[in-house]
Amino acid sequence: MRPERPSPERLKRDLTERARALGFDALAVTRPDAVPDLGPRLAAWLEAGHQGTMGWMAETAERRADPRALWPQVRSIVMLGMNYGPDEDPLEAVRRRTSAAISVYAQGRDYHDVIKGRLKELAGVLASRGGAEVKVFVDTAPVMEKPLAQAAGLGWQGKHTVLISRVLGNWLFLGAIFTTVELPVDAPEGDHCGSCRRCLDACPTNAFPAPWVLDSRRCISYLTIEHAGPIPADLREGIGNRVYGCDDCLAVCPWNKFAHAARERKLAARRDLAALPLADLARLDDAAFRALFAGTPIKRTGRDRFVRNVMIAVGNSGEPALAAVARERLDDAAPLVRGMAVWALGRLLPPEDFAALRAARIDAESDAQVRAEWRSRRAAAEGRHG
Question: Is 33 a catalytic residue?
Answer without folding.
Answer: no
